[in-house]
Write the C-alpha cells for this entry.
Amino acid sequence: MSILSWIEDQRKFKLLNAPKYNKPNSESTQGLWTRCDHCGVILYIKHLKENQRVCFGCGFHLQMNSNERIENLIDSGTWRPLDEIVSPCDPLEFKDQKAYTERLKEAQERTGLQDAVQTGTGLLDGIPIALGVMDFNFMGGSMGSVVGEKITRLIEYATQEGLTLILVCASGGARMQEGILSLMQMAKISAALHVHQNCAKLLYISVLTSPTTGGVTASFAMLGDLIFAEPKALIGFAGRRVIEQTLQEQLPDDFQTAEYLLHHGLLDLIVPRSFLKQALSETITLYKEAPLKNCGKIPYGEHGPITPIKEEQLRRFWKNSLSFSFPGFQPGIKNLGSKNGGDSFSKNFVGSVSKNKVFGKGKGTNGVLGAYSKNLDLSKEFEFVLNSFGNNQQIKNIETDIFEQAFHLACTAHTNWLNPSFQEFKVRTIFNSPNATGVPGVK
C-alpha cells in the first residue's frame, strides 16, 4: 500500500467515526427570523405567529402545525383530545434508507405527536364540534393506519353525540411504509362518513390547506358537505409533472391551486386564515336555523351501548316529563338507573338492536302508537320502550313528543346546544313535502 492510499484510508476512517451533528428541535433555537416562501421577505417569527403565520408582505399563508391550528379555532380551555395514546407500529417491517421505526421515532421526538393527526372535541364560538387536524410536520402528514383509525373514531363519536364534524387536511397522501394498510383507511373513513352524513344527517365541513394531495384528496378531503380552502393552497391528487408527462400538455400556471379548483366547482369557498373561525361559526349557526331539516337516524348495528350517563339522563328526563304532565304521578321505572334495572334495560335494548329483532307489535290507531301507525319501525321501537318502562296506561296516554324525545335521548345523538328544546337537530337539510302528522320523517 502506498503512502497516499494509506492517508486516504485514514481520512475516510475519520469521517466515518466523526460525531454526527444533530439539528436542534426546539423552535427557540431555530432563530428569530424566517423567509416567506412566496415573496421572499424576511419575517420576525414572533410577529408571524401572532398573525397566524400569514405573510405581512404578500398575504401568503405559511404552514402551521396542528397545535397552532387548534389554538386558533377552539375556544380557550375547551379542547378535549381523543385517542392520544394510539401509536403506529411497523407491520411490514419496512426499510428504505432508514427503518420505518426510526423515522417514526424521529418524527415523534420532533413534533411531540404520536402520529400525523390530532382529534378531539371543543367549542368553536360556544358551538360544540368534533375536530380533526392533520400535521404536515409529521412525515408529511401522510395517512397511515393510526391516522385512519383516529379519524374514524372521531367520526363515530361525532355521529353518536350529534356533533358537527370539521377536518383540517394537510397531507401528502397515503403512507407508503404501510402499503395496502394505509390505502384501506380511505374506504374505512368514507364508510364512517356515509353513516355520519347520509344516515344521521349531520354536517361535515372539510378545510383544505396547503398541501392536500394523494389519498387524502381522493377520500375524506373531498367528501365534505361544505369544502373550504385557504388561499393559494396546493390541492390535487397526482403531481403536476406526472400529469404533464401523461397528457403531453402544458398545464396552466395556477393549476392545482385553491382558486383554480373554486373556478371549476370543486370548492365551495376560499376563506383567509384570519376569518376561518368566524366563517365556520356562522356556517354552523346558519345550518342550525335552517328550516325543513330532516331528522336522521343511526342504522341498526351502529348504535353505541347505553352508558350509565345515558341511563341517568333518560331517567331524569322521563321523571321530569311525567311530573310536568301528571303532577304527583311517579312512573314505574325507578329501577332504571339501579344495578339490576339498568343492566336489564341495557342488555335487552343493545341485544335487540344488535340482532335486529322486531320490537313488539303495533296497536290500533289510538294513543301513542296510533300517531305512528304509518311508520311501523318507529312504532315498534316505541313499543319496546313502553315495555321496558312498564305497561302503564297513563304512560301510553302521554303525548307522542315525550316518547320521541326519550327514545332519542336514550339511544341516538343528543347535544344540549343543538337540541335547545330536547328536539333532535340535524344540520343537513332535506326539503320534503309537509307531512300530515307534523312529526319529522312521518308522512
Observations:
- The chain has three domains: 32-59, 63-289, 308-411.
- The chain has a mean pLDDT of 76.
